[in-house]
């Protein structure tokens, strides 16, 4: 075993090399709709298969929801998600299906009901 392997650097390097697509730093908040609430939350980063968000509300792994991406940073769209993993720096939401077109007027409704 090499010294860097003992320290865990090899594992982090291998995980990085296995990532097929780069993650993008996030711009602006998104809306997470769960069975119980609508939450305006900061997006940490975004990839093609999921997103990492910073939450103040408790969620559990396996919880389902819908993530809404709103202008001005994105075109209005929504995607079904599942809480995949809970890390120290945020919650990983894995996308479960194709984009969903949000209902017309949805942005105004979300902004009226979701605190900034």
Question: How would you explain this protein's 3D organization?
Answer:
- The protein has helices at 3-6, 9-18, 106-113, and strands at 24-25, 29-33, 38-46, 50-53, 64-69, 77-87, 90-100.
- The chain contains three helices and seven strands, in the order ααβββββββα.
- It has one domain (22-113): predicted glycosyltransferase like domains (Thrombin, subunit H).
- A six-stranded antiparallel barrel has the order 2-3-4-7-6-5.
- The N and C termini lie far apart (50 Å).
- 19% of the residues lie in helices and 41% in strands.
Features:
116 residues; six-stranded antiparallel β-barrel; alpha+beta; Thrombin, subunit H
Distance between the termini: 50 Å
Number of helices: 3
Strand percentage: 35-45%
Low-confidence stretches: 1-5, 10-14
Summed up, the domain count is 1
**Using DSSP, what is the number of strands?**
7
Which class in CATH terms? Mainly Beta
Give the helix/strand class. alpha+beta
Give a quick account of the main beta sheet: strands, pairing sense, barrel closure: 6 strands, antiparallel, barrel
Shape: globular
DSSP helix fraction: 10-25%
What's the order of the H and E elements?
A: HHEEEEEEEH
Order the strands across the largest sheet as they lie in space: 2-3-4-7-6-5
**What value does the average pLDDT take?**
76
CATH superfamily: predicted glycosyltransferase like domains
> Would you tell me which CATH topology applies?
Thrombin, subunit H
How large is the radius of gyration?
Answer: 16 Å
Instruction: Please name the CATH architecture.
Output: Beta Barrel
């Amino acid at each position: 075993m090499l010294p860097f392997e003992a320290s865990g650097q090899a594992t982090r390097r291998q995980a990085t090399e296995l990532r097929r697509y780069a993650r993008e730093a996030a711009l602006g908040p998104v809306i997470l709709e769960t069975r119980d609430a609508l939450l305006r939350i900061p997006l940490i980063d975004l990839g093609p298969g999921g997103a990492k968000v910073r939450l103040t509300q408790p969620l559990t792994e396996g919880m389902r929801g819908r993530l809404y991406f709103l202008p001005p940073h994105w075109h209005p769209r929504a995607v079904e998600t599942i809480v995949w993993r809970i890390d120290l720096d945020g919650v990983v939401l894995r996308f479960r299906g194709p984009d969903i077109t949000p209902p017309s007027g949805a942005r105004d409704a979300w902004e009226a009901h979701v605190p900034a």
